[in-house]
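Appendix C reproduces, verbatim, an entry submitted by the partner laboratory led by Prof. M.T., so that reviewers can inspect both the input and the predicted structure.
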Amino acid sequence: MARIAYILLCHKDPDAIIAQAEQLTAAGDCMSIHFDARADAVVFQRIQDALKDNPNVTFAGKRIKCGWGEWSLVQATLYALQAAVHAFPRATHFYMLSGDCMAIKTAEYTHLFLAEQDMDIVECHDFFESNWIKTGMKEDRLIYRHFFNERTQSWPFYTSYELQKRFGLTREVPADIQVMIGSQWWCLRRRTIEMILDFLRKRPDVKRFFSTTWIPDETFFQTLVRHLVPKEEIDNRTPTFLMFSDYGMPVTFYNDHYDMLLGQDYLFARKISPEAHELKERLGRLYATKGVDFPISNEGRNLYSFLTGRGRVGRRHGQRFWEASNTLGSERELFVVVCKKWHVAKRLVDQIASETDVPCVEYLFNEDDTQLPDLGGIETTLLKRSRHRRAVVRMLFECFESDALVLCVDPANLDIIKDFCADQAKTHVLEIECQYSDDYLIGHARRVGLAGVDSPADTVAPLVPTLRNALAYESELIRNAALDEYTRLRETNSRAENEAAVARFLRVSKEKAQAIMQLDYLFAD
């Protein structure tokens, strides 16, 4: 009979992690947990204390900071696998999970299923020949080196990428490796895991290659399994049921999806909504139940496609899902940086991104070329972003898999600031009050079309006091809006005063605020 060691990568919600570990180990299975090092050590200690007496739970030997698209996710998985191989010598299978996955079959069904087929269940398609990657870069994931996080360090990520392209700094894929790609959710047999760990000890060059590819959790294990295991011993699919909308966003499951989930030919499902308490309780009880019959219908994807399409029948401009998303979510925090000097705000959020794990997005409602992930087309124009601004920001939260997000907004967009402050999410506003020289205001007049490059100085000069008053009035409107969470950072303040403002705004320690505010040229023109 199969015995599973679950490999859990997680970064938040300790109560859910504890419950997940207790439910899955109650039927005799095991779990190895890697808890992101970015998370509070106190929270991790709480998880350890709650599970310390459970002999079927172990923890990765080392905690590291993980980021989407980075090698760190693969390295964290390897740390958890190594701990599981050592701690659970009787485990026959190793199943990759995240904190929002839940079993949709019983342990009895799962054990029998794995024992009978004796195969590795992992999606692995040829990287170059398949159409698994729908949008964005493909070959460039591999042939260029990616050292930065695309979501939290977008400027260095794309600058490094463009420089490598410009100077032709490509590299070769290891000659004896056929790169494969597929879902990062898999279930592998013990002998496969042991072969992978042994292979990595012998071939550090392969590990070194993948460590600077982009999104390696979609290629690393998939490639090694196909390299080490005969094709006929691989069930080329994911054992975890997940769906994506036609805009590329993961579909979330709620309380009324219980019967549909049980009818799918999968062992787990992702993503279960944090608010689906009834669904979580029912699935949690299900895993340890005996004698349950599961008629497999597999209608989930077709049913979802039918219903989403049906919702637009008879409408010239049918309502997309983003038009129905009227709230960001009460569990989320939005940090809005308001500044007329865009370069000052960008410097600050670049520091925030480098010193914290909070994703940052620059002036997405003001600049066409703001770096944004693929959101299914809604991000392509300023008009679309502004028309569906709550939906765009909600999708950014989901895409970044974060409950916190930093945005830059121009002070002229008071309606946007008020709109976010009226949402259920907790919105914090930091206004950066700058000094404006006459030269800056003249340049501003030209940038906004009030004056041309060749306009005579005596024509432009009278605009300066008017513009100065207009900018002061924008700032006054923001202060008079009676925003609940408003903080001001001033160019004329001392560094200590501004550090205190950043600490209040971001809810971070004094030391973290000092690290963020260490730039001497923050306000420089």
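Residues 310-325 have pLDDT under 50 and may be disordered. Additional entries are available on request from the coordinating office.
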